Amino acid sequence: MAQLREWLEARGLGRYADALLAQDIELDILPRLTDADLTAAGLPVGARKRLLDAIERFRDDQDTKVPSISQPIVPATEPPVEAERRQLTVLFCDVVGSTRLAETLDAEDLRNVLLSFQKVCAEAVECQSAFKFDPVSASNFDPLERRVLTVALVSSKLAGIAETRRARVA
After folding, report:
1. How many domains does the chain have?
2. I need a labelling partner for 102 at 20 to 30 A (CA). Which of 11, 37, 118, 151 fits?
3. Angle at Cα 143 formed by Cα 141 and Cα 148, nearest 5°?
4. How many C-beta neighbours within 10 Å does residue 18 have?
5. Lowest-pLDDT choice from 24-28, 91-95, 101-105
6. At 17, which CATH number?
């Protein structure tokens, strides 16, 4: 209520505050008022025209300002002074001798070997982590022990695949 009265008084229209407040008109609905609304509030023609001009300027001000007059301005929170540091570990697994393997194997067999490799890596990472990652590279924020166990698990499972493949070839 006080906001509308102050706004009207600042524009030399304070004498119409009681008439508008009697109609339950507040500052928040001021931009939507029409000449018919002001007539219904009992304002004379000259007052309506002056008020409509002031409302038009108020609308223009509202369009250029993000917070409206009726909304409290909320201060932005201060950004943290120091950057937060996190430990990141990247696990990279490679197929040693993959070029030679590609030259000696049929394309479908090579695909099956590489899919087995990716599956083993993904299972080992998922087993040691709560997160799911790309099958070949894994990054996480878990403790060091989990990362070491993941590498050990990948190594042992890949050794098993290599032995199985050698047995098939022989």
Report:
1. 2
2. 151
3. 105
4. 10
5. 91-95
6. 1.10.150.50
